[in-house]
Amino acid sequence: MKTGKIITSDREIRQILEEARVIAVLGLSPKADRDSYKVGSYLKEKGYKIIPVRPGQKEILGEPAVKSLDDLREPVDIVDVFRSSGQIAAHVPEAIRVKPKVFWMQLGIENGDAAKELAAAGIDVVMNRCTKIEYERLIVKKIII
C-alpha cells in the first residue's frame, strides 16, 4: 500500500487539481451565501463532478446529495472538507474506507493527527487551503512554480 503524504507544494497542488475529476464536498451547504456553496458551484463550473455530502439534503447545486462519505457510490479524487478542525477526526474512518486520492481541508481547517492517520492509510492530505483560491492561482492565472 502506498503511503500518502501531507501536500504543501504548489506543484503538487496544481497536479491534484489538474488530474481530479470527481470531488465530494463534505459539508456543502444548500445556502448560496455560504463559502462551501460558492466553492462547490465554482468547481462545478470548472468541469468537476461535484458530489454534495450533507445529511438531510436530497440535492445541492443540482446534484444528488449523500448523507456521508460511506454513502458514496463511485470513486472520488478529492474529499473537499468544510467542517471545523475539531470535527475532522470523526470523518477519518469513513475517508479511509472510501479511499479518495486526496483529503483536502479548506482554508482555516487543520488537524495534524487526522492528517497523519490519513497519510498512513495511503491518502494524500492538503490542509488550510481553499480549492477555489488554489484553482484560480495555479490553473487560471498559471502562477509559475
> In percent, how much strand structure appears in the residues?
15-25%
Number of helices: 5
Read across the widest sheet, the strand sequence of neighbours is 2-1-5-6-7
Helix content: 25-40%
Structural class: alpha/beta
Order of helices and strands: HEHEEEEHEHEH
**Global geometry:** globular
Q: How many strands?
A: 7
pLDDT averaged over residues: 96
Rg, Å, rounded = 14 Å
Alpha carbon gap, first and last residue:
30 Å
Key structural traits:
145 residues; alpha/beta; five-stranded parallel beta sheet; two-stranded antiparallel ribbon; 5 helices; 17% strand
Q: What do these coordinates show?
A:
32% of the residues lie in helices and 17% in strands. By secondary structure, the chain is of the alpha/beta class. The chain has a five-stranded parallel beta sheet with strand order 2-1-5-6-7. Strands 3-4 form a two-stranded antiparallel sheet. It is globular, with a radius of gyration of 14 Å. The model has no long low-confidence stretch (mean pLDDT 96).
Write the layout of secondary structure elements.
Layout: H1 10-19, E1 22-26, H2 35-45, E2 49-53, E3 59-60, E4 63-64, E5 78-81, H3 92-98, E6 102-105, H4 112-120, E7 124-126, H5 131-140
Parallel strand pairs: 1-2, 1-5, 5-6, 6-7
Antiparallel strand pairs: 3-4
Short description:
With 145 residues, the protein is of the alpha/beta class. It has 5 helices and 7 strands. A 5-stranded parallel β-sheet has the order 2-1-5-6-7. A two-stranded antiparallel sheet has the order 3-4.
